[in-house]
Amino acid sequence: MKTSRLVAGAAMAAGVLLLQSPAFSQFDGQTIPGVGCTKIGSSGTLASWFGTIMNTHTSSALSLMCPLATPKQLTPGPEWDLYATAVQVFDRHSSQDVSCVRYSEYVSGSSYFSEDDPANTTGSSASVKTINFGAEDPIYNHHYLTCSLPPEQNGSRSHLISVQYLSRGLE
Amino acid sequence: MNLRSYSWIAVTVVAAGGALSYVHLSDKWAGELTKLKREISEVKRGQSSGPAVIREVQVVAASENATGDAPALAPAPSSAPPPELTAEEQAQLEAKRQKIAQARVSLLQQEHASEPEDAEWSHAAEAKIAALYSAPEFQSLRVTAACKYTLCRLDIAYVDAQEGPLAFQKFMETRPWSGRRFTHLDLERGEGSAYLVREGFSLPTLDPKSIEN
């Protein structure tokens, strides 16, 4: 009897521990892969490479629009200046940059407020580059990016890898 | 099966449970460490910019109800998804957002009005803006520009309720140079202003302390 109680108790203890799920990872912004972006306009040629978007046109730039998901609406006060944006790219063109504009919009009644902020890479590289955007007023309802990928140059293609809304506190 | 076998089973089960518990705690402490790093960043930011700003409506209300004393350090944002706000809290937040937005408009108006012109840059910038927005796609949009030392103010207006918004959308997709821009438009009246900063300069930003009242 005592033995069976010991086994039952141990099994219950183990069961309780097994049922506990691991602590939820730090919920820090949203990352959207390049394939989540869409082509805008008619120039350039959109192609995908795994989860990235690339421009395979040999002379025209490719314009893209990408969603930018925030984990939640910022709260004016404690979350002022907390979130920023990072876009990861491959810039494989020696003279044209990957350029992006972050748009942030807020509509209240009949009033429309918007802030748009441009940024771009400098030079070309075989390595990943990050285009950073600073923080903004915590009023905007939604955000999106427009980016331009330069054309293919000597077989080298530029890619948009991912866009992320992230917490500056963790930089 | 004898007592010895049962004992071994019990030891094995407890050991497995202990290993799983260790993994669980490791993840938990990793999350706590990340949270702590964020708190440190917040404290540093608070030290460089002055007194800590007033915290979330819920946090302030809770701490006042609980102890009557203001917290020495504001709590870091939670890593868990935020609780749903009541309708009243939503309305308060919306009112605060509107206040911040209007404060930003006022700030930019004041900054632009107080700046001197740059004899070399201001008129050239105005000419560049005029050339860009005289293109056919902006026919339904009236754009007039006044450029000072670092800021250009572009007054926007449209009359045609169908073509005007389309021209305004095109306006938002186009820029005479690479600079941050803040735009405000009254959608009913079809009038507004945009403030475009000169390349190499920063757009004026609000001091959070000026809003926290």
The unreliable regions of chain B are 44-78
Identify the biggest protein-protein contact and residues per side: A-B, 56 and 69 residues
Overall helicity of chain A: 10-25%
Sketch the major β-sheet of chain B: 4 strands, antiparallel
- Cα gyration radius of chain A (Å): 23 Å
Task: Give helix % range of chain B.
Answer: 40-55%
Which descriptor suits the 3D outline of chain A? elongated
Give the SSE map:
The complex is a heterodimer of chains A (171) and B (213).
Chain A (H helix, E strand, L loop, with lengths): L1 H18 L10 E4 L4 E3 L5 E4 L2 E4 L6 E7 L14 E8 L8 E10 L2 E10 L7 E6 L8 E8 L9 E9 L4
Antiparallel strand pairs in A: 1-11, 2-5, 3-4, 4-11, 5-10, 6-9, 6-11, 7-8, 7-10
Chain B lengths: L2 H47 L7 H10 L20 H28 L7 H11 L9 E6 L3 E7 L5 H11 L7 E6 L4 E7 L16
Antiparallel strand pairs in B: 1-2, 2-4, 3-4
Structure description:
The complex is a heterodimer of chains A (171) and B (213). Chain A has 171 residues and is mainly beta. Helix content of chain A is 11%, strand content 43%. In chain A, the strands form two sheets. In chain A, strands 1, 3, 4, 6, 9 and 11 form a six-stranded antiparallel beta sheet that branches. Chain A has a five-stranded antiparallel beta sheet with strand order 2-5-10-7-8, with no helix packed on it. Chain A is elongated. Chain B is built from five helices and four strands.
Quickly list its features.
heterodimer, A: 171 residues, mainly beta, 6-stranded antiparallel β-sheet, 5-stranded antiparallel β-sheet, 11 strands, B: alpha+beta
